[in-house]
Amino acid sequence: MAKRLGFIVNPIAGMGGTVGLKGTDGEETLRRALELGATPVAPLRARRFLEELVKYRQALILVTPKRQMGEELVRELGFEVELLSVEIGERTTAEHTKKAAKELVDRGVELLVFCGGDG
User: Fold this and answer.
1) Residues 6+ apart with CB under 8 A from 33
2) Which residue in 40, 48, 74, 107 has the most C-beta neighbors within 10 A?
């Protein structure tokens, strides 16, 4: 039986650090980071993590939020996907992450992996 792994990507996390800002918390800080040329780092970290799991993908079901918070990358790498009900817009917020994490816990995943600014 396949193991169910919860997987969340915070696609804007870590961007501020690449341009000398403390983080990307808040719309104003994110806007400033983008003005300074920041690019997403968390999705790259998430990809590196998942690429290490590709050899086990037949034994895993990844339970993840829609779109850029996990779905796109998980599907691209060929994992079986179970999507969360949290609706994700163009920009993600801390509220999306909190709702996704709660839903993953409620669904009883065996492990929850979060990829953000600090990995």
Assistant:
1) 15, 16, 18, 19, 21, 24
2) 74
pTM of the shown model: 0.87
Amino acid at 84: L
Q: Please name every residue paired with 114 in a beta bridge, in sequence order, or none if there are none.
A: 8
Can you list the domains of the chain with their CATH numbers?
3-12+39-115 (3.40.50)
Instruction: For the sheet with 111-115, list strands across it.
Output: 80-83, 60-64, 3-9, 111-115
- In order, the DSSP letters of the chain are -PEEEEEEE-TTTTTGGGGT-S---SHHHHHHHHHTT----HHHHHHHHHHHHGGGGGGEEEEE-SGGGTHHHHHHTT-EEEE-S----SS--HHHHHHHHHHHHHTT-SEEEEE-TT-
